[in-house]
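ingest -> validate -> predict -> emit
validate: passed (alphabet ok, no gaps, 139 aa)
predict: started
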Amino acid sequence: MKDNNCGYCVGGEPLAKFGIKICDLEVSQLILFKEQSHPGRCIVAYKDHVSEIVDISDEERNAFFADVNRAAKAIHRAFNPDKVNYGAYGDTGCHLHMHLVPKYKDDFEWGGVFEMNPQKKFLTDAEYDEMIGKIKACL
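emit:
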């Protein structure tokens, strides 16, 4: 099931507003969040357009969290954060997804909740490509 108005479902320009697809995982896709105030921040988005974790089977839920775990391990290996925060929101974008936000002790938000989109740091295409390469090498 797909929603033609959802960046996670259709990719292309709607996705490019906030992210870059890295790869497909077992039941989801891994996306680099363009705003990189937290180096290595990614999103794991479920393969189908469902709003809630309760809308999928136990087996699919377990596979989704296995994808989240795989992505988190890659972020830890690639960027060595002090902590990864996990956020599952969707008040306006009702597609099951989870933000993986690496946090660093010298971070501007260490000890607090991360801003959804602080609009502080965007990279060049080459820098995004390098970051994606690091993550893929660690998957």
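The mean pLDDT is 93.
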